[in-house]
Amino acid sequence: MDARQSRQEARTGLQEQLSAYSDRLTRFEEITPEAVHVLVHTFYGCVRQHPRLGEIFERRLEGQWPAHLAKMESFWQSVLLKNGAYKGRPVPVHLKQKELVSADYGEWLDVFRPIANALFVPEKAEEIISVAERIAQSLWYACFGTAGAAAPASLSSRS
User: Which InterPro entries match (predicted)?
Assistant: First the structure.
């Protein structure tokens, strides 16, 4: 099985898993600290199952998941709730990740988008996905961009 087929199967599995949960979920109508907690934990639970991203995260975070999840909750609260909870610098951290390739940011969004859509009402999901896409584009430009380069179409749902 090639990598592309493996990623497609992972996406299909993720969609089936989220579909099953969506039927039972009351979607969040507001972005609250509790909603961010659920978003972060659901997202990283799915990332850990992703055939490529899961391996990358596991190598970097083995034994450190609780601290990473807390940091990511602070990050997402800062960007979605604008509460200043996060004090880190994500660009230098991502620049150190030498195993990342350009397509990984699109893969990250392929996991993130369906989770946001499953957990939030459509208007809030759109808002959150738009923020996530800007973050992915910014990190992509920092890691792979060159003067005049355009970010891959996979980093925007408006393409």
Answer: Globin-like_sf, Globin/Proto
State which residues form the domain around 107. 3-145+150-154
Q: Is residue 68 part of a domain?
A: yes
Q: Which pLDDT band, with edges at 50, 70 and 90, does 68 fall under?
A: very high
Residue pLDDT, tens place only, 142-156: 999 888 888 999 999
Judge whether 23 lies within some domain: yes
- Per-residue pLDDT, 51: 95
Find the CATH number of the domain harbouring 109.
1.10.490.10
pLDDT in tens, 48-65: 999 999 999 999 899 999
Three-class secondary structure assignment of the chain: CCHHHHHHHHHHHHHHHHHHHHCCCCCECCCCHHHHHHHHHHHHHHHCCCCCHHHHHHHHHCCCHHHHHHHHHHHHHHHHHCCCCCCCCHHHHHHCCCCCCCCHHHHHHHHHHHHHHHHECHHHHHHHHHHHHHHHHHHHHHHHCCCCCCCCHHHCCCC
Report angle CA 58, 124, 154 to the nearest 5 degrees.
55
Q: Tell me if 90 is assigned to some domain.
A: yes
